Amino acid sequence: MNKKRIVITGLGVVSPLGNSVAENWENLLAGVSGIGPVTRFDASTLNCQIAGEVKDFDITQYIPAKEARRMDVFIHYGIAAALQAIEDAGLDHIEGLDKTRVGVNIGAGIGGLPLIEDTGADVIAGGTRKINPFFIPGSLINLIAGHVTILKGYQGPSYGIVSACTTGAHCIGDAARMIAYGDADIMVAGGAEGAISTLGMGGFAAMKALSTRNDDPTKASRPWDKDRDGFVMGEGAGVMVLESYDSAVARGANIYAELVGFGMSSDAHHITAPTVDGPALAINRALKDAGLEPSDIDYVNAHGTSTPLGDANETNALKSAFGEHAYKMVVNSTKSMTGHLLGGAGGLEAVVTALVIKNQIAPPTINIDNQDIEAGCDLDYNKDGARKMEVRAAISNSFGFGGTNGTLVLKRVD
């Protein structure tokens, strides 16, 4: 197949580090942590009482308050990031834009859990008459895309992939293929999540998956550090606009990076315990799709969740896929600052990877005070601060429950 070249022309972000791309990028480069005590609910009975919450977010900057009350917060985040990306790409200013050829693919890993939780409490207190008629559409994952298409009049593909913490990467990779195969000219793609609630955090806490460093929240997410003790939940969204290289150049669009490869795989092993082979296979498939060699990659935005098993496993997967070149790359986890956005992580981290390529600078991985060399975590994790560097091409990794893996390959456009 003679694939179309796909480029990234718009970015949008809502995260614990800020409600715009510029604010997020500034805080990432400065090594700022967005982790703090939970304020959304009383978390005092949980062994984890910290999270990366979105702060000072106002959905009425994007949609009317009456409409906002009809949907869960994860949809709010997805809509906001999508509208930012659309504005950044200048889609509203394209004369004669064929909206039947513009699509949206924005997913979530969990979806409207807070709304489900609140509705359940209402039913227990007052019976089924308390169920809001907007409860179902307010909690469905595909309704991020649905609302964006309604707001903008886009009549192309409208859907949202659900694949746990790989969701955002899968949505972006699949959206690119929509363009490559001619099903759309432009796609708005990414992931969102807003599951910081009693059930959301309580569920992960029951699995012993979360950090319990409650007395020092900003130090809790510490990928590849010997004292890491679990991940920290985050929330928000990362969305990008994808279009063909030819159309972007023709209209003089700002191009952040080219999306040249996408690889997926399954561990086929366990619902939560990862394997080395699965992630390595996704990386190798993405490189093959990109037509690149391992030596072409300079930067890795790793899944890097700060779990004892996961961090060592990803490091071993990188060594398996890249061989000795693994030691020549910068491997970075922005989750050290944002926490883990679950279904929104792959979207946010793909946005960050595009910014790394555009600006030729890598953010730090904070909180590596005692690198876990004994566990084999011996790569260059950029622990000493933001680094100016040449980034010809980069990968962004995302792995999820069920053993689902996704890798995106982005390349500099000269």
From TrEMBL:
Gene3D superfamilies: 3.40.47.10. Keywords: Acyltransferase, Fatty acid biosynthesis, Fatty acid metabolism, Lipid biosynthesis, Lipid metabolism, Transferase. Pathway: Lipid metabolism; fatty acid biosynthesis. InterPro entries: 3-oxoacyl-ACP_synth-2, Beta-ketoacyl_synthase, Ketoacyl_synth_AS, Ketoacyl_synth_C, Ketoacyl_synth_N, PKS_Beta-ketoAc_synthase_dom, Thiolase-like. GO terms for molecular function: 3-oxoacyl-[acyl-carrier-protein] synthase activity. Pfam families: ketoacyl-synt, Ketoacyl-synt_C. It comes from the Bacteria. Residues 3-412 form the Ketosynthase family 3 (KS3) domain. CDD domains: KAS_I_II. PROSITE patterns: KS3_1, KS3_2. Its EC number is 2.3.1.179. It catalyses: (9Z)-hexadecenoyl-[ACP] + malonyl-[ACP] + H(+) = 3-oxo-(11Z)-octadecenoyl-[ACP] + holo-[ACP] + CO2; a fatty acyl-[ACP] + malonyl-[ACP] + H(+) = a 3-oxoacyl-[ACP] + holo-[ACP] + CO2. Involved in the type II fatty acid elongation cycle. Catalyzes the elongation of a wide range of acyl-ACP by the addition of two carbons from malonyl-ACP to an acyl acceptor. Can efficiently catalyze the conversion of palmitoleoyl-ACP (cis-hexadec-9-enoyl-ACP) to cis-vaccenoyl-ACP (cis-octadec-11-enoyl-ACP), an essential step in the thermal regulation of fatty acid composition. Belongs to the thiolase-like superfamily. Beta-ketoacyl-ACP synthases family. This is 3-oxoacyl-[acyl-carrier-protein] synthase 2. It comes from Vitreoscilla stercoraria. The lineage of its organism: Bacteria, Pseudomonadati, Pseudomonadota, Betaproteobacteria, Neisseriales.
